[in-house]
Inverse folding.
RNA sequence: GGGCCGAUAGCUCAGUCAGGUUGAGCGCUCGGCUGAUAACCGGGAGGUCCGCGGUUCAAAUCCGUGUCGGCCCA
């Protein structure tokens, strides 16, 4: 379909150049038109083609997780990505823009379980793993569609036809490949590790998937009787269910413990407790009396042995290899009892210390949190439910010192809210700690914005990162590609790790087509490998979903399936995500890249913040402060929403959402809209041809203000480019917005209005056309990455079918030396400051701008100001409607000014007594040429007829401005540069022009009321009651006739007639169209 | 509990690196302008620079400490 087929009515800005555009900026209508237009001309595809031969730039999209819709944070993230992709493209790059989606994992499984009403793994097994997995896939696909359409709705241009999906065979293969590389380097291991287990999901979950919430738990103080000596160790725990797995008690070597003989209910107990904890423990245990028998250090207690209270109930608990002994541990503090019950099977620190001590790892529970046969008496009970029985058993033995409950923060599964259990299980690990130095080195190869994120946060995290548990005992994920031999003894050399579909097909016993095979469970579960007479079976686990996205830098290139692009592009030039990804995707990619390829897979990182509410608080459904992106789009349009999001500092700081700011952005766009449509009627009327009449052609006719706006454009272009290079697109945007609003709209357009209104075809008018046209086109290019819709529409209207198919094919403008003129920029800045002060002075004198003033005097406080006003006097005359501008240089005096003084009566009184009043009057009335004591004394002495001694304390000098002048200070950002004086004295000549202008303005308003075309000639009839004023006005009949396009000044019989009152004078005006 | 980041006008932010009278835009308000007109221009009001302590002639800025918010870790 060609452009000419487009319905003109729907697309006012398209088709003919300088066509009619709607009066009002209507974002929704603009978006609708632009979306249709993009579709019709294949704008995205054409843009990509246009830059296809440029230098490649490899951007990698961090894949959003496919559950739920796009929120403000995702929207901010994608807006940033879109803006940077567009900008980098304009700078001459072929940018990779393949979007990605993270589609596996437990969160989706639990959503599907909810949907199907499942409660645990057994329900899934019953439903059938294959069915369940296919439900997960459809769920993820559904969510993906929703996200895609959300992203498209605010104009993000990415390769939507071809996103990478972590569930595709190519992508899963990329994960297998990376993992096999890591295995080859010997960085994969299987073994017991203490992990957080969700007993409902029956899988290990990552630490960051643990959410802490308050819950009530039992507290027990238990005494462990010592062997071969009198007394017991008192321990404290909130998890009685872990006591069956107790293996040692930890003390602090440096801490002091006391041997206490305490009595309650007539019974005597001998207890060991940390000195600082004694009081508290004994009061909890309701002991009536006690005495301290001995004080010893923790070090002296090392090696003491004790009897496990539940030894009979749990016979499998190993009483050998150094268990049930006192050891030192760093994690002990003088809290609770100062003696820490340690169960390596149920705690991370316990586990580590147990490993160091060479203790066996005893964990008598299964993945569902139920005691196994090793749990002895408690077999078959869920641990949390066994708490009570265990406590009772201990009490029966007389070993319960105290019990109660506590409300404390406890970890829960982020998906199903089940309290998590710490347990030691067999898991697969990437032993990332083996390459920690390499990780830290590789960090240096990346550049971060902001840099502190890398050097503080990220480095700290990497330094403390534990081995990466990559196995999950679940269904919806990438199956771990490890096959182990029957009766495997745990030796890694004996396992087979498959790295690709082809390798899989080659090595498995079954017939598999590498092109067709689905790598998901359960397909791969049934595949076996037989080599050298040994049969291998796949381990049943799937990968932690964090592993999926960690391979995105090559997965997005379909590597290893497609090697060519990997060779050309990898590693990524740029990634950008929010700061939560420091320990997420920034980290997982570093780990994967380093372990698999020895390199960090990205060069530059832009780390942005979170989208908070207007008070800086997290948006959350329960608080009800969530702002939906589609609501923002509805209220202010996609462009305004994007402008707001992109106006926020993208480096590490959180965003505060603000409807106010977004509304301001829409208003700014409205100003741009007005700026753009202002010249169109004139250009159309005059048949302006921007190709023939370009800047070069009108160069010699350019006026100062044209040169100025072009110079400003160069500066803005330079500043914006620098800001983008610095990853501060927000600063670039504010520079551009200030240019549009402040310079183009509020100054340039105001100044050139008269030139455009000129009926004659003048060189000056053409120069203004060419200038404004150039400026508008450049503004479109500079704004395009931020506001893709409105810029498209404006660009289309300016270029018609002579330009590119889309504004997004433009190159990023460069600063042009030829038009750069810093002196001129400073001049005008100063002139505008004078103008502002001048307007203020006029207002004080109540003289409207329509009435000319005879002269304006600028008393310069700085040479630079005098220079500027000297050079730009003509412009200033025009702006202030002054007949003459006079500059008083810094070393000159403005003679019309005089000084007087104000007396300080508290000093004058005592000094002059009776005559103080007289002296004061003389002071006030004195008019002297310079503010000096000598001059003042002389004037006062003359007035009083005798010598008067004055001192500095008595007076304060004040400037006396003559009555006909009105003064105002000239300032830029609060700094004073001088004073402007406006002479508002009226003369007949000034009154004559003033009244004439009053008439013109009213006739113009009446023309508008008749909705006349701007160039329609009229007949004008004036009837002014006051003869003198009528005479004054008649002196300017020619001016009036020209301004209002009055071809005849005659009686109007039945035209548009109106009574006016001007400065108290009645006048009647009538007009009539001559067409 | 620990690490990192932030707090300046009613709102959004600059100024903090390198100490010297806190500044802009928006909003509010008063006035002006009028063929860009639901636009535009000028004036005005509006501040405990989060609190406390220290260094210094001088602190929004440097140091210490606390409070609140955000992210991460436990």
């Amino acid at each position: 379909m060609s452009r000419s087929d487009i319905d003109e009515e729907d697309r006012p800005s398209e088709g003919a150049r300088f066509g009619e555009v709607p009066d009002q900026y209507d974002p929704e209508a603009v978006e609708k038109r632009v979306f249709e237009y993009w579709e019709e001309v294949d704008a995205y595809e054409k843009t990509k083609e246009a830059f296809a031969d440029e230098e490649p730039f490899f951007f990698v999209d961090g894949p959003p997780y496919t559950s739920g819709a796009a929120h403000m944070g995702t929207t901010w993230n994608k807006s940033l990505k879109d803006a940077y992709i567009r900008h980098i493209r304009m700078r001459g790059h072929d940018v990779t823009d393949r979007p990605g989606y993270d589609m596996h994992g437990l969160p989706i499984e639990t959503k599907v379980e909810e949907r199907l009403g499942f409660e645990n793994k057994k329900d899934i097994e019953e439903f059938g793993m294959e069915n369940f997995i296919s439900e997960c896939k459809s769920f993820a696909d559904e969510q993906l569609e929703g996200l895609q359409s959300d992203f498209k709705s605010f104009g993000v241009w990415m390769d939507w036809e071809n996103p990478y999906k972590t569930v595709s065979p190519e992508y899963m293969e990329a994960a297998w490949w990376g993992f096999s590389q890591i295995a080859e380097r010997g960085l994969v291991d299987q073994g017991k590790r203490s992990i957080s287990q969700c007993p409902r999901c029956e899988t290990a979950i990552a630490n960051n998937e643990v959410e802490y919430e308050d819950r009530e738990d039992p507290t027990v103080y238990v005494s462990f009787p010592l062997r071969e000596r009198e007394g017991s160790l008192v321990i404290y725990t909130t998890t009685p269910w872990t006591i069956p797995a107790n293996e040692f008690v930890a003390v602090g070597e440096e801490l002091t413990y006391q041997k206490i003989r305490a009595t309650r209910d007539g019974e005597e107990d001998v207890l060991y407790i940390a000195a600082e904890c004694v009081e508290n423990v004994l009061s909890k245990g309701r002991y009536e009396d006690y005495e301290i028998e001995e004080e010893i250090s923790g070090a002296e207690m090392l090696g003491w042995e004790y009897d496990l209270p539940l030894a009979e109930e749990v016979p499998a608990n190993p009483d050998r290899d150094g268990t049930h002994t006192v050891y030192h541990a760093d994690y002990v503090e003088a809290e609770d009892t100062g003696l820490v019950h340690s169960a390596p099977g149920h705690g991370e620190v316990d586990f580590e210390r147990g490993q160091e001590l060479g203790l066996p790892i005893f964990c008598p529970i299964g993945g569902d949190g139920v005691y196994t046969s090793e749990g002895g008496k408690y077999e078959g009970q869920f641990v949390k439910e066994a708490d009570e029985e265990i406590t009772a058993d201990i009490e029966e033995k007389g070993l319960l010192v105290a019990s109660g409950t506590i409300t404390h923060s406890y970890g829960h599964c982020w998906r199903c809210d089940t309290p998590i259990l710490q347990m030691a299980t067999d898991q697969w690990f990437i032993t990332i700690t083996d390459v920690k130095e390499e990780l830290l080195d590789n960090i240096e190869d990346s550049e971060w914005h902001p840099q502190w994120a890398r050097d503080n946060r990220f480095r700290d995290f990497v330094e403390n990162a534990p081995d990466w548990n990559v196995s999950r005992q679940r269904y919806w994920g990438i199956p771990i590609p490890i096959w182990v031999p029957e009766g495997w003894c745990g030796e890694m050399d004996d396992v087979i790790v498959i790295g690709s579909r082809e390798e899989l097909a080659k090595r498995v016993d079954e017939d598999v087509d590498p092109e067709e095979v689905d790598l998901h469970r359960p397909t791969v579960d049934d595949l076996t490998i037989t080599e050298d007479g040994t049969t291998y079976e796949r381990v049943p686990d799937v990968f932690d979903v964090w592993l999926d996205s960690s391979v995105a830098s090559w997965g997005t290139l379909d590597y290893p399936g497609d090697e060519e692009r990997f060779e050309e592009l990898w590693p990524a030039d740029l990634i950008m995500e929010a700061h939560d990804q420091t320990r997420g995707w920034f980290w997982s990619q570093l780990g994967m890249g380093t372990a698999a390829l020895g390199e960090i897979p990205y060069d530059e990182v832009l780390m942005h913040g979170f989208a908070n509410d207007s008070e800086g608080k997290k948006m959350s459904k329960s608080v009800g402060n969530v702002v939906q992106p589609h609501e923002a789009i509805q209220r202010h349009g996609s462009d305004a929403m994007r402008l707001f999001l992109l106006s926020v500092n993208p480096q590490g700081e959180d965003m505060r959402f603000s409807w106010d700011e977004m509304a301001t952005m829409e208003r700014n766009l409205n100003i741009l809209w007005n700026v753009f449509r202002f010249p169109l009627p004139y250009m159309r009327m005059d048949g302006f041809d921007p190709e023939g009449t370009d800047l070069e052609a009108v160069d010699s006719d350019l006026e100062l203000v044209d040169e100025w706006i072009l110079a400003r454009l160069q500066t803005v272009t330079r500043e914006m480019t620098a800001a983008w290079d610095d990853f501060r697109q927000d600063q670039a945007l504010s520079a551009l917005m200030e240019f549009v609003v402040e310079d183009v709209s509020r100054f340039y357009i105001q100044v050139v209005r008269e030139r455009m209104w000129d009926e004659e075809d003048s060189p000056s008018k053409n120069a203004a056309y060419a200038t404004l046209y150039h400026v508008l086109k450049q503004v479109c290019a500079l704004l395009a990455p931020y506001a893709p819709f409105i810029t498209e529409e404006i660009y289309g209207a300016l270029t018609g079918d002579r330009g590119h198919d889309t504004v997004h094919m433009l190159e990023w403008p460069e600063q042009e030396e030829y038009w750069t003129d810093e002196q001129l920029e400073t001049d005008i800045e100063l002139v505008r400051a004078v103008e502002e002060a001048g307007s203020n002075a006029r207002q004080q004198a109540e003289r409207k701008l329509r009435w000319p003033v005879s002269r304006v005097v600028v008393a310069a406080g700085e040479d630079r100001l005098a220079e500027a006003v000297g050079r730009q006097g003509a412009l200033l005359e025009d702006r202030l409607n002054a007949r003459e501008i006079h500059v008083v240089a810094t070393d000159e005096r403005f003679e019309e000014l005089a000084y007087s003084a104000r007396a300080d009566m508290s000093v004058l009184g005592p000094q002059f007594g009776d005559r103080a009043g007289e002296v004061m009057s003389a002071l006030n009335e004195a008019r002297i040429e310079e503010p000096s004591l000598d001059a003042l004394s002389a004037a006062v002495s003359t007035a009083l007829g005798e010598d008067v001694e004055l001192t500095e304390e008595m007076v304060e000098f004040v400037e006396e401005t003559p009555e006909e002048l009105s003064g105002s200070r000239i300032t830029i950002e609060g700094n004073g540069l001088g004073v402007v004086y406006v002479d508002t004295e009226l003369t007949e000549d000034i009154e004559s022009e003033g009244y004439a202008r009053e008439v013109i303005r009213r006739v113009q308003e009446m023309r508008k009321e008749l909705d006349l075309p701007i160039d329609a000639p009229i007949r004008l009839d004036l009837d002014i009651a006051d003869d003198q004023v009528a005479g004054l006005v008649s002196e300017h009949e020619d001016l009036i006739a020209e301004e209002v396009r009055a071809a005849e000044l005659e009686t109007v019989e039945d035209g548009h007639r109106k009574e006016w009152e001007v400065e108290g004078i009645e006048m009647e005006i009538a007009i009539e169209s001559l067409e």
Q: What stands out?
A: The radius of gyration of chain A is 42 Å. Confidence is low (pLDDT under 50) at residues 1-14 of chain A. Chain A has six domains: 169-187+432-627, 203-426, 655-819, 827-894+965-983, 898-960, 988-1073.
